[in-house]
Design goal:
Shape: elongated
Distance between the termini: 52 Å
Strand order of the largest sheet: 1-2
Number of helices: 2
Radius of gyration: 22 Å
Order of helices and strands: EEHH
Helix content: 25-40%
Number of strands: 2
Largest sheet: 2 strands, antiparallel
Structural class: alpha+beta
Length: about 80
């Protein structure tokens, strides 16, 4: 059986984001992800916002507002 826990490798150390439940001592295998580092999150968020705006500009319906009012929801249930 295995348990998966996320963490980060920095300056030669591995820091886990959470404590694995029920494990006091165990062998581990470390797999390094090629996903962007945390510092790239702002750039990724900017690209995501740009993509969403382009979709809206082309008329792609992303759902969302306007939401029905509480009264409109109650009328639907009748």
């Amino acid at each position: 059986m295995s348990t998966k826990v996320k963490g980060i490798y920095k300056n030669g150390r591995i820091v886990l984001f959470e404590t694995p439940p029920g494990i006091e001592e165990s062998e581990v295998e470390v797999t390094f992800s090629t996903a962007p580092a945390t510092a790239d999150l702002a750039e990724r968020e900017a690209r995501r916002r740009e993509l969403v705006q382009r979709l809206r500009d082309t008329g792609f319906n992303l759902g969302g507002a306007p939401y029905p009012t509480r009264d409109e929801l109650h009328l639907r249930g009748r």
